[in-house]
Amino acid sequence: MINNILPYLVVSGLLFAIGFAVVVSKKNLILMLMGVELMLNAVNVNFAAFSKFDPDPVKGQMFSIFVMIIAAAEIAVGLAIVLKIRRHYHEIDPEKLNNLRD
Amino acid sequence: MTEQLITDLVFWLFCLITVSGAVYVLLSNHVLYAAYGLLVTFLGVAGIFVFASAEFVSAAQIMIYIGGILVLLVFGIMLSSRRKAGIDHLKVENAPRGTGILIAGLLGTMLILLASRLSFSSDATGQWLAIKSLGFSLMTTYVVILEVVGMLLLMALIGATYLAKDDQ
C-alpha cells in the first residue's frame, strides 16, 4: 500500500484543509501562523511523495527542504510582527486590529 | 507478507498521528495546547517522510520545524500572552466557524477526490536515496538557490530581530 501514491495525497489534502480551517476560524494571530505552517507541511508531504516515484528523487526533496527554510524565515518575521502588534494594540485578535491610528 | 503488513500498519499509524494532531490544533481552545498538537503533527509528518524514502528531509523536518519553528512559536506565545487583569490570554475564541469549516471541508474533499481520480505511474523506484547524492546536488546543481535562500534567511532573521526590539 505504501508503494501507492494515493495515501500520501490523502493525508496531504486533509492536512491542507485542516490548516486552512485553522487559518480562517481562529481569532488569534499565532494560531493563524500555525495554520499556515500546517499548510506548508502538507505541500512538503506532496513534494516528498512525488519524489518517491520520480526517477530522480533529488528534485522533489530539494523543493521540500527549501520550502522548510522559507517557512522558518516566514515564521520568524511573522512572530516579530505579532509581538510588535501585541505591544502596540495589547491584543492579538485580528478582529480588533482595525484602527490605523491611536 | 507479515513484514508488509507491519509496514502498512506503521505507515497508517503515522498518518493517524499527523491528522489527529492537526485536528487537535483545530479544536483546541488554548494556544499552548495547540502548539503541542502541532508538535505531534510535525513528528507524524517526519515519519511519513521516512516512508517516502526522504530520510534527510525527515531529519530536517525534525530539526527545522520542531527544533526551530515550534520553539519560536512557543516563545511567541509566552511573550505575547502576558496575563493582565485576570484575563487569560492563552484562551482563544473561535470565529463563527460555519462558513470557514464548510469551505475547508469542500477543499479537502475536492483535493482527495481529484487525487483519487488521477492515475500516476506508481511503480516506486524503490531506491533509498543516499544522502550523499542529495548533498552533492545541493553543493553543485542547486548551490545558487542555496546561497540565495541562506541570504534570505539571514535577512529575515535580522529583520525579525529589528522588528521585535523594544523601542521606547
Q: Stretches of chain A where pLDDT falls below 50 for ≥5 residues?
A: none
Structural class of chain A: mainly alpha
Our estimate of the beta-strand percent of chain A is under 5%
**What class would the helix/strand composition of chain B place it in?**
mainly alpha
Give the biggest sheet of chain A.
none
Question: Which term fits the overall shape of chain B?
Answer: globular
Order of helices and strands of chain B: HHHHHH
Helix content of chain A: over 70%
Core attributes:
heterodimer, A: 102 residues, mainly alpha, 3 helices, elongated, B: 168 residues, 74% helix, globular
Structure description:
The complex is a heterodimer of chains A (102) and B (168). Helix content of chain A is 75%, strand content 0%. Chain A is an all-alpha fold and 102 residues long. In chain A, helix 2 runs antiparallel to helix 3 (58-89). Helix content of chain B is 74%, strand content 0%. Chain B contains six helices and no strands. Chain B is globular and about 60 Å long. The mean pLDDT of chain B is 84. Classes of the chains: A mainly alpha (102), B mainly alpha (168). At the A-B interface, helix 1, helix 2 and helix 3 of A face helix 1, helix 2, helix 3, helix 4 and helix 5 of B.
Sum this structure up briefly.
With 102 residues, chain A is an all-alpha fold. Chain A has helices spanning 6-25, 29-52, 58-89.
How are the SSEs ordered, and which strands pair?
The complex is a heterodimer of chains A (102) and B (168).
Chain A: H1 6-25, H2 29-52, H3 58-89
Helix pairs in contact in A: 1-2, 2-3
Chain B: H1 2-27, H2 31-51, H3 55-80, H4 98-117, H5 131-139, H6 143-164
Helix pairs in contact in B: 1-2, 2-3
